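# step 3/5: fold
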Amino acid sequence: MESKGTVYLTRERMMELEKELQQMKSRGRAEMAEKIAEARSHGDLSENAEYDAAKEEQGHLELRINKLEELLSRARIIEKSDLPKDAVYILSDVTLEDLKNGGTVTYKMVSPEEADFEKNKIAVTSPIGKALMKKKKGDLIKVVVPAGTLEYRILDVA
């Protein structure tokens, strides 16, 4: 499998992924073996849709396990205290004013593996994330997204 470089994760996210991987390797594989054994007991495997479905599900589980192992092999823990506080970097909390509607929003800058837009965690590699990197309080940014151009003023960086 081709390595894609270092992945920076918070300590909490690293622990979540390690726990998920351990559960898939132990309980997930055991449950999969039971499903396959049960399906196999139903007779002729050449016409057994339940067996085929269980084998396909097993393939998805193993693929997810491999992806997590590969990701964790490249992961490094990053601490907010290790980063400069004078500008936007990964793990910064950035409060923005939308110059079009006057609203404000606060985003946490995270790695792509931790991004969750519903929780206001945006990837440093996203269009908004890229535009914010290394900017400072008071800076104006314009970001071209599929819906048009967004314009923001950085109100705070923490």
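# step 4/5: annotate
The two ends are 37 Å apart (CA to CA).
# step 5/5: archive (pending)
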